[in-house]
Amino acid sequence: MVLAVAFLIIAIIVALIFIPKLKKQQDRKAVVVFTILLLIGTALNMGIALKVHIPSPLDLITFIFTPIRDYIVSFTK
Amino acid sequence: MEKEIISSRQFTIVTFLYSIGTAILIIPSSITGAAKQDAWIAASIGVLLSLLLVKLFLTLANQTPSLNFIEANEKILGRFFGKITAICFLIMTFLSAGELLYFIGIFMKTEVMPETPTLAFALLFSIIIMYAAYLGIETFARSAEILFPMFIFIFIFFIISISPQITFENIQPLLEATKTSMLYSITRFMSIFSFPLLVLLMLYPASVNVQQAAQKGLYIGTILGGVVLITLIVLSILVLGPENTAARTFPSYALAQRISIGNFLQRIEIIMAFMWISSIYIRTFMYFYTTVVGLAQILKIKDHRPLILPMGIIVIGLSQIVHPDIVHSTNYNNEIWPIFSFIFTILLPILLLIVAVIRNRKSKAQNNETPQQETKNDNQKV
């Protein structure tokens, strides 16, 4: 719980420091990308801190490539 | 974004430390698992075959001498398809960056500080990576230059102090491995050692000062890195024995624990751990830097620096969820990663190379009537 709040506070501080700087540079795209990435990162880390079960992204890759692997393994037998 | 240039000597050192990377920690156990005491033969063949891959990467890089790999993707395959392949490539590097942070965390947790959560290590390590990415590759290359002599010194000290414990019976009988297990070991070795060398194309053509010397540097770095790994595999087999090596998660660390000179110089394994911590630092940085710079280039953002902090926060989170446990990680690295990386680091460059060659021929044929500077400008700019 404490960790999740800490992550949230860090994210807010980062946003408050960097977004005005980026806005000054007139780089709208950078502001949007920065905000989206920061939101994803904060959500992910708060989820971890609150011990929510998040599936590994590698499971998806494992799922995609398992048929290919089985095919190749069947060759070597 | 101002252009950053590193010297070819720095590039050689980065290649050397990069190719050792995580392989120094996990390779000995995964390849002795299949090829038993002949693992070192598999590793040697793997290093030789890696030189062919280096040749492929260099040929591809020389097609577009002023662009890095992500830009080359867009230039060769066109805007739409180039972006798709570049994004797939970036997903690979990004997941690997998270995985490497996981490795450093799980290594410290299982071997050094069992009661500290892995998040703490990932956090500390990623702060270094983010800071290095903020300062850019020139500073990073200089830091690699500082780490290099220390690495070599510790490595030589390691070999000398472990050599009294060698028992030659462990490596006999020679050439007992079957063809299938040999093939598996070679693929596993190459998938971690040399497939990811493609990531170095982010540095090689565009940000190296002397390209001719850097080409040689890529070969030399790969060979030296291979020699270090082969030595380590041979030592693990000779000292720990093939079964013991295969059963360990981190055989190199177990090897360092065996060092005992006159019952006096003992327990120096954490000094030896400097080797893999520094090499993993180089590798994680390259993956992370590639992801951040590549993302900025795909989205056409001028400066990649603002993206470092949010991407770093995501990588920290990623390092906590990529592998729920060590079995998951071993399975993934032995079974899935070779195929996954084969598609994006071997098939993708081959595709790019074929398309680039066809395009060059076409544009040359068109410009034969009126020999213009255009193709020259496109393809031979340094």
UniProtKB/TrEMBL annotation, chain A:
Transmembrane segments: 6-23, 30-50
Keyword entries, A-Z: Membrane, Transmembrane, Transmembrane helix
Name under which the protein is recorded: Histidine kinase
Organism: Lysinibacillus boronitolerans JCM 21713 = 10a = NBRC 103108
Automatic annotation (TrEMBL), chain B:
Keyword presence, Phosphoprotein: no
Transmembrane segments: 12-33, 39-60, 80-107, 119-137, 146-166, 186-206, 218-240, 270-295, 307-324, 336-358
Subcellular compartments: Membrane
Superkingdom of source: Bacteria
Keywords assigned by UniProt, alphabetized: Germination, Membrane, Transmembrane, Transmembrane helix, Transport
UniProt membrane topology term: Multi-pass membrane protein
Assigned protein family: Belongs to the amino acid-polyamine-organocation (APC) superfamily. Spore germination protein (SGP) (TC 2.A.3.9) family.
Protein name listed in UniProt: Uncharacterized protein
Organism: Lysinibacillus boronitolerans JCM 21713 = 10a = NBRC 103108
